[in-house]
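Reviewer comment 2.1 asked that we show a complete input and output for one of the modelled complexes. We chose the NAP case, as it is the one discussed in the main text.
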Amino acid sequence: MAGRVKDKVALVIGAGSAGPGWGNGKAAAVLYAREGARVMAVDRDPAAAEETRRIIEGEGGTCAVFAADVSRGGEVAAMAVACLERFGRIDILHNNVGIVEVGGPVETSEESWDRVIAVNQRSMFLTCKHVLPAMERQGGGAIVNISSVAAIRGLGVPYISYTASKAAVLGLTRSIALQYAPKQIRANAILPGLMDTPMIRRPLTAAYGGDEAKMIETRNRQCPMSHMGDAWDVAHAALFLASDEARYITGVELVVDGGLTLRSA
Ligand code: NAP
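Response of the prediction step:
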């Protein structure tokens, strides 16, 4: 089924990978391109976004790179302008950025709280703020916001700011979905479970006393399928929600977790 987002423009925020291999944003950007979209790959790390561009162009696709810290309004506004200048429209807004800082309410400093809320929550408000007017002018669009099952379940590691920010993403998504439904703009959230992506390595290994193998083994064991998911599992869910196949689906919270949230313990 090639061409599922043919002729669309996808603005993928956090399109680089946090480390070697496939992160959720990089996989989504590449999959949108494989399915016919022109992609603007946005990341605060331009080298990471360039790698995504190289992969897409190497496969014959079209990709432009824009470096921005999307927790900053001015940079997000410039990003939206750049995408419109380059491609003329924005059909898909894919909000992938998210960071984890481990700690409960007592251990978390105010600076850490503010940093995580700014990157995980404020950024999605800002990208929607600056992209929605273009979608409205075009007469439609699709927003995919990456939340986490951490928004709705405890996962064994206390990260209060991450949990709170990912829950806020759900409220933001529902609110936009309802307000913009009359304008044919859809907004949906994906809640990945325990995924084996580069981003988990550093912050979560610290929560396991620096023992990465133990962290990986514990996460695999937590999953009903006995293994974590990967970036492609999230990317395929995003592709569906962003495509016209999901044209009557808005405001949903799509859990991609191999059954993790079915467990009571
Ligand atoms: P990723 O897509 O590999 O990396 C995200 C990219 O976003 C990185 O290149 C990162 O740069 C960039 N970024 C971070 N803050 C940014 C900012 N303020 N402005 C612009 N770019 C920024 O990461 P991932 O692990 O696959 O996770 C992606 C999303 O999935 C996150 O929202 C995460 O919360 C969610 N998620 C992941 C899991 C999991 O188990 N992996 C589970 C549930 C949900 P830096 O490397 O410089 O930070």
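The chain has eight helices and seven strands. We note this here for comparison with the apo prediction described in Section 3.2.
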